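Researcher: Next entry: HTH cro/C1-type domain-containing protein (Micropruina glycogenica).
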Amino acid sequence: MQNRLLALRTERRWSQQRLADLLGVSRQTVISLERGRFDPSLPLAFNLATLFGCRIEDIFTPEPWSPQD
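Model: Predicted structure:
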């Protein structure tokens, strides 16, 4: 699954540790999510969407992101 976590996090100038703290997960979890090594649980995906003020599908997609995204 593709995701925009790195872009969303850097737009806000948050460190990986800051995002991890806001989500209540480890920094290693954030790293794994950003690198696509691990797909989030549904509750974590909802927490991410709430935190970034968008929909889950605005963060995660099964297809690679196209230039217009």
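Model: Note for the record: The chain has a mean pLDDT of 93.
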